[in-house]
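During the reporting period the student researcher (J.K.) took over the structure-prediction task from the postdoctoral fellow and processed the backlog of single-chain submissions. One of the processed entries is reproduced below for the supervisory committee.
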Amino acid sequence: MFFAASIFLISYALIMSEKVPHTIAAMVGGILMVIFGVLDQDKAIHYIDFDTIGLLCGMMIIVLVLKKTGLFQYLAIKSVKLSKGNPTWILVSLAVFTAVMSALLDNVTTVLIVAPITLAIADTLSISPIPFLVSEILFSNIGGTATLIGDPPNILIGNSSHLSFMSFITHNLPILLVIGVLTLIFLRFYYRKQLTIPVDKEKLIEGFDESKSIKNYKHLIICLIVVLLTFTGFILHSRFDLKLATIALFGGFTLLMITKTHPEEILKDIEWGTVFFFVGLFVLAGGLEATGLIEIVAKKMVLATNSIKTMSFAVLWGSAIASSIVDNIPFTATMIHVINSIDKMGIYNVQPLWWSLSLGACLGGNATIVGAAANVIVSSYAKANNQNIGFLNYMKVAVPVTIVAISLSMGYILLVDL
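J.K. obtained the following structure tokens:
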């Protein structure tokens, strides 16, 4: 137990410090669990959730094939054109586009697509891109919270809790719509002085030609059909007793086959660092569970609270605070084992805890620039293009948004689940 806790804490500290790449810190920690005898190799492999790994890889393949069609650029430019040069509506359209795409694909992929387009549009219109980039960070996490595949913490929770794809939408979406509307109102007020463009620039938006983004209409139609069937599979997966990983991988490799795309062309662009980061986290958390440390934490948590209500609020706010300080993925991976241990005690119905963890970890990631992977990506991309969002400047916007979002989530959980 001492070795397991020490390895876990050192690995976690390295992940927090960002002095070592997350993937390396997690994988070295996982391997040390085996070297020091906390787990043998077979048990370590047993703790790796291949449903999550398969779902990640399948969705990455689907997104990469779709990206080659130019669909994402088309949708982003089209949403901006609908604003007709009004900067407020440009912010709203890009925020809504980011939220929807983050829910349907994943928030990391979405910001990689929309951030470059945003910078290009801001440069063309001679306006600051910061209000738009900040809104995209916030809405990538808000949108990603809505579905099982939208945000990495939800992927982990979905595969561990056996909650269905549709249950995430039906449960999380109502409160997220409220949070989204209030966030847009706040952003419009906060950035009101920056949401203006020169009169002579308004006409430029009308000249944007989104049709040039589409590379191959035949491939696009084929891709959309396969993607539609894949999402239909996600919706119906529990009825046919199919794992989401099976559906995602089938959809991804079917796309490769039908579009006659060479696998190496796509597989080389998969975020293998993210995949192995998850592998390392699974083994690290597995080491804590195998030694009984997770069970001890779970029992202490039950003793410290006198009802599922107080426990849910503790998980919600604890997840939000922790996710604002460190990456929300490792924290979620650890908390999943704690909730599963509480579930095994048979004292409480733990479903409210799953929703508390989902809303807390995903929305809490909005509070700081290091709270979620999407935040770091947008900030880094902006800095590389001489646009500094700034850690404290970002928090001035994000912390109030996050506090309101978590407060509303607390009332929602109380109303719906308890």
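The committee noted the following: The radius of gyration is 21 Å.
J.K. will present the remaining backlog at the next meeting.
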